[in-house]
Prior knowledge:
- The protein is an alpha+beta fold.
- It has three domains: 2-196 and 206-241, no CATH class; 250-492, Up-down Bundle (Vanadium-containing Chloroperoxidase, domain 1), CATH 1.20.144; 515-709, no CATH class.
- The protein is 62% helix and 11% strand.
- The protein has 27 helices and 15 strands.
- Strand 8 and strand 9 form a beta hairpin.
- The longest helix is centred in the first third of the chain and has 45 residues, at 179-223.
- It is globular, with a radius of gyration of 30 Å.
Amino acid sequence: MHSLNSFLNSIYPIIQQSGFWGYWFILLIAFLESLVIIGVFLPGTTAIAFMGFFASKGFFNVEMLILFSTVGSMLGDFVSYYLGKKGKILFKSKFDKSELFVKGEKFIEKHGGKSIFLGRFIAGVKPVMPFAAGVLKMKMKRFVTWEIITCASWSAAYILLGFFCGRAINFIEAWSARIGVIVVVALIFAIIVYLSRRFLIKKGKAMFSLLKSAAISVKETLLENSFVTKHIKGVHVITERFSVKKFRGLPLTLLAVAFMCAGLLFFGITKGIVKSQAIVDLDMNIKNLLYFYRDPYLVKGFIWVTTMGEWEVVVGGSAVLLAIFLLWKKKEYILPFLIILVGSNLFQYIGKLIVERARPGSVAAISEAGFSFPSGHSTTAVAFYGFLTYFLIKSLDNWQNKINFFFIGIIAILAIGFSRMYLGVHFFSDVIGGFLVGLMWLIIGTTIREFLHKREKPNAAKSQNAQQNNLKIKLITGILVTTQTVFFFLFGFTIHPLSKNINEQTHQENLTVTKNVDDLFTAGSSLSKFTEGAAGAKAEPLSFIIITKNEESLLSAFNKIGWYKADKPDIGAMYELAKATILNESYKEAPVGASFWQHEVQDFAFEKETDANTVKKRHYIKIWNTHVETENKGYIYVGTAGFDEGFRWDFSHKIKPDIDAEREFVFNELQKSNDISTYEKNPFVEPMTGKNFWGDSFRTDGQIYIIYLK
């Protein structure tokens, strides 16, 4: 992380000095990326995304980048279209040689302009599609219409991707705790999976055929170039690395690149856990956020999901899978599978011993032992279920079944990883690290299997096909799978949530303080003056310090003035909140969104609706227990106040910027309880403006109330 920041800091001055030339640079890159031959090899998409990243830092205007990129990509596509339309002698005969291009040709003839749009977002296809449209003499009017839509969408997508990556930390801080956004994102993810699956089932084979035929045709054209013929040996070495006919060509190249990327990411995360406070802060906040939204029914559901990754279940499943390999004479899968299982588990075990990271035990919903990083369940999920998915895809003939099992495998792997975080037994970085370890060994195993398969004799394949028709083998396979399924359910019933309340988090012991309360928040003290975002960035300052003899006294004070304690955001409460929002009804105990202080979500919150008697408008105060005592045995709580003035599109409240007005409102309300013995109003932080945890603007004079309850 440090080296990346150093690199970016070193090039920022260069980017800043580029000025308006930066826009012409993105036009040139977009133009070259869209040319029929150059675009196949130029990583222009990455460069365009980086320009969006630099725009997020204020070096460029996003709208201007999108405009110049759109113009450049359109110019490149028009050149490719012209070459296809006018360059029959150079290219047409070579495309006609490919049976695969005939399928791609039919695809374009059938879907017309949609092919231009879809192909633009597939690597290797985008510079070929306009050329193919020219070869097939697509009407210029139709081509131009789709070009405007396609190039503008493509430019906006990648520039905004880079832009939002540059703002990623702020984005996470602003949206990660909005339950409405979480639901919306989940729905969007489900829709994307459904549409992607549907598209791949219906159009995937034709698109891949077109991509392959285009690559072959471009290769044949290049090999006849005079420069290439003079340097044929060097070109041959390069083309061998991208050959789709040999395993040691493009498949091995892609696997090697994927392995290196996964390895670098894993070791980068490992280094970050050891040295980067930002990763640790993010882990802590995600842990507490998931705990805040924990629901008993979801805990039971995710226990079943996490059971899929238990070593007992995986060992049983591995035995069944090995037996199936032997029964169906798929012996080339056995060695790679064993290498994946042994290698991934050994690697993650060594990683645990080296890092020695403790588990987030205070929020654990189930009992787990051992170190935390990397997650063994996440490693196993990718290693075992990833290889199982790979085996099924390679063994099945039906294209739709291949796609279905691909998505089932991906969803199962992600669900197992998420279950470890939701159940409070792993941090976010533990799960990502486990995924990467499993992916590295999955790449090794599949590479070995592909190598063994290429060496297999043709007769062996015929023998396998004959074996597959054996009803006896199918019956035994069914019995094995059924036995493993029964074992899974029987074992799953043995895993139970911990006996303690799953919403009862264990905290540190209270400390005795002999100094003034103000001293707790001086420079160098252990307590922060500010709430914080998901990655630890400062948000709004505290507005209350409340000293009370016990929690019951605090609850009593708010009850006397007609304030209600907010419900926990479980499934039932979220249903009631949604209903009250849609019907514009009152819900006096509605859940209040999460905020962080000292990495902890508020312990509880109180709220009071306005005279409108609707859940959409309410006063609230979020309160944290500092777990610190005064020398007079008073318990110290801190809090922030705010006012929800309406709802957004994602059903989350919009917060009023003037938090000082709410501070005064809450204080005046508390005075009505007659439970305040003494109070002080002191300067706490400098007057400031900023963004709170939710991304809403705020302003404050920086003062705080120190209240002593009777």
